[in-house]
Fold this sequence. Notes:
Largest sheet: 7 strands, mixed
Bound molecules: NADPH dihydro-nicotinamide-adenine-dinucleotide phosphate
Number of domains: 2
Oligomer: single chain
Shape: globular
Order of helices and strands: EEEHEEEEEEHEHEHEHEHEHEHEHE
CATH topology of the largest domain: Quinone Oxidoreductase, Chain A, domain 1
CATH architecture of the largest domain: Alpha-Beta Complex
Distance between the termini: 13 Å
Amino acid sequence: IKQILLANRPQGLPDANNFKTVETALPELMPGEVMVKPLYFSVDPYMRGRMNDAKSYIPPFQVGEPIESSGVAEVAESRDDRYQAGDKVMSSGPRPFLPWATAAIFTGDHLRKIDGSIPLTYYLGLLGVPGLTAYFGMADIGKPKAGETVVVSGAAGAVGIVVGQIAKIMGCRAVGIAGGSEKIKMLTDTFGFDAAIDYKGHSNIGAAIAAACPNGVDIYFDNVGGEISDAVIKHLNFFARVPLCGQIALYNTTEVPVGPRIQPLMVTRSVLMQGFIIGNYANRFGEGIKQLSEWVKAGKIKYTETVEEGFDHLPEALLGLFSGRNSGKMVVKV
Ligand code: NDP
């Protein structure tokens, strides 16, 4: 089988030299074990943090060991009665990931069967971590009220596209910020955003935000951080809420990023800013999946994916997140 390992730790933006592909063999299957072959891998921005040797809410990848990410797999061979060849599965338990390998062995207890009748990539996107992140960030922290203005950065990505549509469902004005004219067009034409701002094509993003949000900003769902967020924060209204979801603009910085002091504005405008990780909501995932599924069935939420083809393209797909190569959820079809 093939495996993709972390070859060394990146400084700044990672590149292909940080990964290494090796050939290896799997041991013989023992009783209680299941061999799975991956069908789809997810690549996600937080994985950049796992490439560093830093303590976080999730342990770092080890140099010389396979990278791992969420994925959907098919049972190839089973010595656990609960699984048959052909079953669609995801890994569960303490480390709900698949190693970047063309096949892997799990104990049956660390797998769970999934319903193969819905599109398998939905488990990685709309009904997986990104969709749930959008849902709980909005439901629990954003708390949208009809008539409010919601701005989301990283708007054309896996999380952002869902955030904007939830804003619309709740009767809000949805404004997205993303990179490139095609993404902007997609947000307004396909996903129903009221306005969208191309941060790459704007020299004065503050003015663009002011124009797109004539009544100010009540919720800023922050996926990117950095200068985009500095610009949005100036337009926050009294009692605005800011779910801090991600800071992708800062994941490859090599120096401590600095920006304007926002605390005075937060005080005088009574702003609530709260960071969260989706794991905080693990015991409520059922609620999120149920609500998102209902919205999908009712045609209120649409989704899009960028599918890279081939196991060997995993590193490229992961790196592509940092140049905005994806619209919607980025997945790799093995
Ligand atoms: P996306 O599908 O949004 O992919 C990443 C996107 O980020 C790219 O397509 C690109 O879009 C944008 N981007 C990359 N670099 C920059 C930059 N320097 N400045 C501005 N935008 C940039 O990823 P996800 O939807 O999976 O994740 C979005 C955010 O949410 C990330 O920050 C991620 O870490 C976070 N997250 C947090 C979770 C949590 O539990 N808190 C769970 C899941 C995700 P563009 O072309 O528009 O630049």
